[in-house]
Design brief:
Elements lengths: L2 H11 L12 E4 L9 E4 L4 H9 L4 E4 L16 H11 L3 E4 L1 H5 L5 H9 L2 E10 L2 E9 L3 H10 L13 E9 L16 E13 L3 H11 L7 E5 L3 E18 H11 L6 E2 L6 E11 L4 H6 L4 E5 L14 E4 L2 H5 L2 H12 L5 E3 L11
Parallel strand pairs: 2-3, 2-15, 3-4, 12-13, 13-14
Antiparallel strand pairs: 1-4, 5-10, 6-8, 6-9, 7-8, 10-12, 11-14
Helix pairs in contact: 6-7
C-alpha cells in the first residue's frame, strides 16, 4: 500500500477542500507513491514524534496539526519546525495533516467530543458556506435522462436526505459550427435549432472533478456548454463545532466536574455561574472563542472550547456558561478517532497510536 491509498481513505472522512482557506493540510513532507511500512497517528508532529515513528518502523505520520503552517523560507534547523522537517526528510518519513478538514467533518473532532460526553441529538454548530456548487448545462432532450443519471452517479443531486435531485426546463438551443466543427446534430456552417433540456444539479465541491468528468464523457455534443456556480447555501452536515444534549441535565458545578473528569484536564477556566441547569451543550475543539455568539444563538446552556482570552469571558453576558478546557485537552481524542477509522479501513495494516503527549502546557 502506498501513501496515496492511505490518504484516499482519510479524505473520505475529511476531504481537503473542507479545510479553511488559512490552513495547510494534506501531505506536507514526502511522496504519495512511497510504499508504507507503518502509520503513526499523533496530534502534533515534534522531534520526539519522528523518533517514535523511527523506533516503530512507521514511515508515515498522520498528524492532526500541520507542522508546516506558515511559509518556510529556510531549512537550517534553527526552529523546532525546521528540525522536525529535516529529521523527517533524512529518515524518509512522510507527514500528512488533516486539521480543519477534520474539524469541518460531520464525523470529525467535535463529533468525537460529543461521543465522549455522551451528547444526543447532535448537529453542526456552524454549517459551512462555499462547499455547495451548482452545475447548469443543456443537452438534447432525448439524451437528458442518461446524462442526469451519470451526473447522479458522480455525486451530483444530493440535498440532505434526498438524492437524484435536479431541476429541468425544456427549450430551444441554437448553434452554428464553423468549417472545423464536427456537430453531432445539424451541419457545419448552417444555423441549427435543437430541442434541449437545461439540467441544474447541486453537488459538494469535493465531487467537482468527478462531476465534470461525467459531464464531458457522457454529453453528446462536441463542445459542452455549462456553468458552475459556488452558492452561498450552507451545508448542514459540514462545518465547525457541534451542539447536542446531555442525557440528563446537571447543575453547573456538576457539569464542570464531569467535564474535568471525562476530558482529563487539570484546569477549567469558566465564566460566572448562573445557577442554571445544563442540558444543551455546544462545543468546538481547539481555539473556539469565535463561536461563542453561535453557541448563544443556538440556545446552548454551556459552550465548551479552548483558548478564550480575558475579555471573551464577558461575552457570556449572563446567558451561557463558557468553559475553557485547554487546547490539547479539547482535541486529545482526535488521534483515537483517526486510529479507529484507519484500522477499520485498513484492517491488515499497522496503524499505531502515538504514546507521546505533545501538550506544551503544564499546570501547577
Amino acid at each position: 500500500m502506498n501513501i496515496k491509498e492511505v490518504t484516499n481513505y482519510l479524505e473520505e472522512l475529511a476531504p481537503l477542500n473542507y479545510a479553511e482557506d488559512f490552513d495547510n493540510v494534506g501531505l506536507l513532507v514526502g511522496n504519495y507513491q512511497t510504499a508504507v511500512s507503518g502509520i503513526l497517528v499523533t496530534l502534533d508532529t515534534l522531534e520526539e514524534t519522528v523518533d517514535e515513528a523511527i523506533s516503530k518502523n512507521c514511515n508515515l505520520i498522520i498528524s492532526f496539526h500541520p507542522i508546516i503552517f506558515g511559509g518556510l523560507k529556510k531549512l537550517n534547523g534553527n526552529s523546532y519546525v525546521e528540525r522536525v522537517v529535516l529529521k523527517a526528510i533524512k529518515n524518509d518519513i512522510a507527514i500528512y495533516a488533516t486539521h480543519t478538514a477534520l474539524d469541518n467533518s460531520k464525523h470529525g473532532v467535535s463529533a468525537k467530543i460529543c461521543a465522549v460526553l455522551g451528547l444526543k441529538n447532535t448537529k453542526i454548530l456552524i454549517p459551512k458556506k462555499g462547499v455547495i456548487k451548482k452545475l447548469i448545462t443543456t443537452v438534447p432532450s432525448q439524451d437528458a435522462t442518461v446524462l442526469r443519471n451519470f451526473l447522479f452517479e458522480a455525486g451530483a443531486g444530493s440535498i440532505g436526505n434526498y438524492t437524484n435531485c435536479s431541476f429541468n426546463t425544456v427549450g430551444e438551443g441554437t448553434y452554428q459550427g464553423n468549417k472545423d466543427a464536427n456537430p453531432v446534430k445539424g451541419k457545419k456552417g448552417k444555423l441549427h435549432t435543437e430541442q434541449e433540456t437545461q439540467i441544474s444539479v447541486v453537488f459538494e465541491s469535493k465531487h467537482e472533478s468527478n462531476v465534470l468528468k461525467a459531464l464531458n464523457k457522457h454529453h453528446p455534443y462536441e463542445e459542452v456548454a455549462y456553468d458552475i456556480i459556488t452558492t452561498e447555501n450552507v451545508h448542514q452536515d459540514i462545518g465547525m463545532g457541534m451542539i447536542g444534549e446531555l442525557p440528563k441535565e446537571m447543575s453547573e458545578k456538576d457539569f464542570l466536574f464531569f467535564l474535568k473528569t471525562v476530558m482529563k484536564t487539570d484546569c477549567i477556566r469558566h465564566s460566572e455561574l448562573l445557577n442554571k441547569k445544563i442540558k444543551k451543550v455546544a462545543l468546538l475543539g481547539g481555539a473556539g472563542s469565535f463561536a461563542i455568539s453561535n453557541a448563544k444563538r443556538a440556545g446552548a446552556d454551556a459552550y465548551v472550547s479552548a483558548d478564550f482570552k480575558y475579555h471573551e469571558f464577558f461575552k457570556a453576558e449572563k446567558s451561557i456558561l463558557l468553559a475553557d478546557i485547554g487546547h490539547y485537552e479539547s482535541e486529545q481524542f482526535t488521534k483515537n478517532l483517526l486510529v479507529d477509522y484507519l484500522t477499520k479501513k485498513i484492517s491488515n495494516f499497522a496503524v499505531i497510536l502515538s504514546e507521546k503527549s505533545t501538550n506544551p502546557i503544564y499546570y501547577i
